[in-house]
Every structure is written in structure tokens, then in C-alpha cells.
TrEMBL record:
The gene is murD. Pathway: Cell wall biogenesis; peptidoglycan biosynthesis. This is UDP-N-acetylmuramoylalanine--D-glutamate ligase. Pfam families: Mur_ligase_C (PF02875), Mur_ligase_M (PF08245), MurD-like_N (PF21799). SUPFAM superfamilies: MurCD N-terminal domain, MurD-like peptide ligases, catalytic domain, MurD-like peptide ligases, peptide-binding domain. It catalyses: UDP-N-acetyl-alpha-D-muramoyl-L-alanine + D-glutamate + ATP = UDP-N-acetyl-alpha-D-muramoyl-L-alanyl-D-glutamate + ADP + phosphate + H(+). GO terms for cellular component: cytoplasm.
Length: 445
């Protein structure tokens, strides 16, 4: 009898898991409560993988030996609770794929900067000629690549939701960029639960592994005092560099690692701004673990093109610059975006609030924002936070309305910034859809 595996959710990670499970000889059943995208459905049909959409057949699912669930499904969902009660392991795609590869892994998490750091690290290793795959929240699914491609190293972006479904998986190089309140709605509005989730990035690490973390982040530093870290700990921060570690001295980014020193002017980094200096340091250290030569590292840090939907300077219309930062799905990301603006801002914000505390934005809004366009089904929290801070606060119920309102409120020399500080699921499929609609509407002006 074949072992059975059920996959909940037929998105990118679910599809990859299904193909890998079939290749490993499992009897596979894919179940999605929503509608499965045509391109994914076609792949399932080609592989003769059994699937259902628009429902979860509980009787069948509860007979499974292992369940791989999409990170979007919360542990509190009744079906997941039943699976736990029946003692059926519920794991993430990353956990499953990790069982079938001996490749080295660089795993990157944090509340902000994950995607940029992951893509930058991948860019550095690929430029140096290494056989490297990009997976997790970006790129193709990890499981799909393990099934169909053989890479020596994977650079994997991990959200807390993915980490929650990981048990035996180990990161050879773990990167923890920062921890600020996010997704608290999924963690019982208890910050420590979220912190514990992020620290799963170092579970199962040994003294032969590496843990790269931010020395300027108070939450991380407090947590390190409580925990026994087995891996070699390599800190990075904006103060003088330590050995081993990364820091800034005389406007130079310096990394000390393994008796080697790397340095370059922070003015030569392709990614500018304080938050990006952190990202460049973390990616630089991770790359030096794999013995990338200094000149290759310098070239990659200077030539990286950045990330779509992350502070993407998109278009200028009648002297007004439009910046797409749709990827800013929490308050801290938006703080960085506003902090990096040097012209008067018309700020488009809003969406699904994940237990946001907007107080940290108030002084920046007072200093830099001339008007706010609230884009969401329920904008009451934004109004409560900013009606007394900004001169103009208006509502919009579609991206077309929001862009037109922002354009009307802006003047030559101003910046219109889409940086929502919220999830996108009330009006959009995801942050990419939100960013793409923004760009489309700006083009239509």
C-alpha cells in the first residue's frame, strides 16, 4: 500500500508538494477550498494527480497519513484542529521538501526586508557561478525544485507561517533580520508567540551552522539572552563591525568573517537607505559563508536591481512621482518607506488591518505627509489614527479611485506613495495584484 499524503491548497507551494510527493511514491490528493487556477489545474491533470476544488472532503482528508498545508491556512481552522486531534502530522511544504534534498540552505526571515535580502543573496551567489535555487515566499516552490531540478544551495525566504509548519528541517545558514509586531491576529495578539515563531529559524542548528542576526534589534537581543544558540552567531548592525560580524565605519560597510575582511563604501551600494544597508550586510555575510570572492561580492552589491512592489519608483506624471511599495504589508515597512521620502507625500494606505498600531507613524506623517488616501473596506482605524495629524484624509474603494484622488491632491514635485501597512485581501488577490493595479491606474492618468 502506498503511503497517503493530502495537500491543502493548490497554489505554487501545494502544486510543488504534489509533484514531489508523487515522485516519492505517495498516493496524493490535493484539496482546495477555493477555485484552483487554470495553469495549476492543467499540471495536476498532466500528472494524473487526484484533486478537488471548492470544498474539503473531510472524511478523505482525515484518513491521510501526512497533511501538507498552505501557509495561508491558520492553525485555528476547524479542519486543522481535527487533524491535530486525530494525531495526523500537519507540515509545511518546506518541511516536506527538506526531507528529499541534501542541498545547503540559506533561510531568511524577519518582519521586514525578507524578499529584498533573499533576492540579493540569490543574486550574489548566482553571479558567482554557483548552482543556486530561489524558493519559499519568492521564486518557484522549494518542493517543485527538489522534484525537478538539482541545486547545490537554496536561498529560501520564510514567513512565520511557514516556520510554524517546520519541525525537523534545518537551516545551514539562518538569517533573522528584525522582529516588529506583525500578523498578531494569527498569534492570539500575543507578541511572544510571534517572536517564538520567528526563532524557529534556528531550530535543529548545530555548532557547524551559522546564525546571522541584527545586533541593533532590541527584541532579538533580548531573546538571545534567554536562549542557548548552538550555531556560530554572526551579528550585523550600523555601529563599528565586530569579529566575526558586519558594521559601518567611516561610511564603509565592513564584514569580518573567517579571518577575511570585506569593505565597500555605503554610497556604492545599489540599495540605498538604512533598512537596505541591513539587508546588504545580511546578504553579504551569508554569501561569505560560501566563500564568495570580495570583488564578486562588491560587484553584486553595487549592481542589484531591487524588488518589484518594494519602494519601486515607477513613473512621473506632470512632475509627480509615483512610488509602488505595495509589499509594505505592515506598519514597520511603511515607516521605512516614509522615512526614505524627501518630498511632500500623498500616502495611499489601508487594507486588512492585522492588529496594527499606527502610533509609530504619527511623527513621520506629521513631518512628511500632506494627504492620506485610505483604500480599504474598513478605514476606521486609519481615520482614528490620522484625522488629527494630516490635513486631508479621504476614502477610496478601488485602486482607480485611490490613484485619481492622490493625483488630484498632489502637486508638481510631490510624491504619491502606495505603502498600505496592511494586507491586501479585502480588495485584491495579493500585494502583487495591488501593486500591478496601482501601476496600471497610474499609466491611465
Amino acid at each position: 500500500m502506498k503511503k497517503s499524503v493530502v495537500i491543502l491548497g493548490a497554489g505554487e507551494s501545494g502544486l510543488g508538494s504534489a509533484i514531489l510527493a508523487q515522485k516519492q511514491g505517495f498516493a496524493v490528493f490535493v484539496s482546495d477550498l477555493g477555485k484552483i487556477k487554470e495553469k495549476y489545474k492543467n499540471v495536476l491533470l498532466q500528472h494524473h494527480i487526484e484533486f478537488e476544488e471548492g470544498q474539503h472532503s473531510e472524511e478523505k482528508i482525515l484518513k491521510s497519513e501526512t497533511v501538507i498545508k498552505s501557509p495561508g491556512i491558520p492553525d485555528t481552522a476547524p479542519l486543522i484542529q481535527k487533524l491535530h486531534k486525530n494525531g495526523i502530522p500537519v507540515i509545511s511544504e518546506i518541511e516536506f521538501a527538506g526531507r528529499y534534498t541534501n542541498a545547503k540552505t540559506i533561510c531568511i526571515t524577519g518582519s521586514n526586508g525578507k524578499t529584498t535580502t533573499t533576492l540579493l543573496t540569490y543574486h550574489i551567489l548566482k553571479n558567482a557561478g554557483l548552482n543556486v535555487g530561489l524558493a519559499g515566499n519568492v521564486g518557484k516552490s522549494f518542493a517543485g525544485q527538489v522534484a525537478n531540478e538539482q541545486h547545490d544551495i537554496y536561498v529560501i525566504e520564510l514567513s512565520s507561517f511557514q516556520l510554524d509548519g517546520m519541525y525537523d528541517f534545518k537551516a545551514d545558514v539562518a538569517v533573522l533580520l528584525n522582529i516588529t509586531p506583525d500578523h498578531l491576529d494569527r498569534y492570539g495578539y500575543h507578541m511572544q508567540n510571534y517572536v517564538d515563531s520567528k526563532f524557529r529559524i534556528i531550530q535543529n542548528q548545530t555548532k557547524n551552522d551559522f546564525f546571522i542576526c541584527c545586533s541593533d534589534d532590541e527584541i532579538i537581543q533580548k531573546e538571545l539572552e534567554k536562549r542557548e544558540i548552538k550555531a556560530a552567531c554572526i551579528p550585523f548592525g550600523l555601529k563599528d563591525p565586530v569579529e566575526p560580524g558586519a558594521g559601518i565605519s567611516d561610511e564603509k560597510l565592513i564584514i569580518n568573517f573567517n579571518q577575511k575582511q570585506f569593505s565597500m563604501s555605503i554610497l556604492d551600494l545599489s540599495l540605498q537607505g538604512k533598512h537596505n544597508t541591513y539587508n546588504s550586510m545580511a546578504a553579504g555575510i551569508a554569501s561569505m559563508v560560501f566563500e564568495i570572492r570580495n570583488e564578486q561580492l562588491r560587484e553584486s552589491l553595487a549592481g542589484f536591481q531591487g524588488v518589484e512592489h518594494r519602494l519601486e519608483r515607477f513613473l512621473r506624471v506632470h512632475g509627480i512621482e509615483f512610488v509602488n511599495d505595495s509589499k509594505a504589508t505592515n506598519v514597520n515597512s511603511t515607516w521605512y518607506a516614509l522615512e526614505s521620502m524627501h518630498k511632500p507625500v500623498v500616502w495611499i494606505a489601508g487594507g486588512i488591518d492585522k492588529g496594527n498600531d499606527y502610533s509609530m507613524l504619527k511623527s513621520l506623517v506629521k513631518e512628511k505627509v500632506k494627504a492620506i488616501v485610505c483604500l480599504g473596506k474598513d478605514n476606521s482605524k486609519l481615520h482614528a489614527a490620522f484625522d488629527t495629524v494630516a490635513k486631508n484624509v479621504v476614502d477610496a474603494s478601488s485602486m482607480e479611485e485611490a490613484v485619481k484622488a492622490a493625483y488630484y491632491l498632489a502637486r508638481n514635485g510631490d510624491t504619491v506613495l502606495l505603502s498600505p501597512a496592511c494586507a491586501s485581501f479585502d480588495l485584491f488577490e495579493n500585494y502583487e495584484d495591488r501593486g500591478n493595479q496601482f501601476k496600471e491606474q497610474v499609466r491611465n492618468l
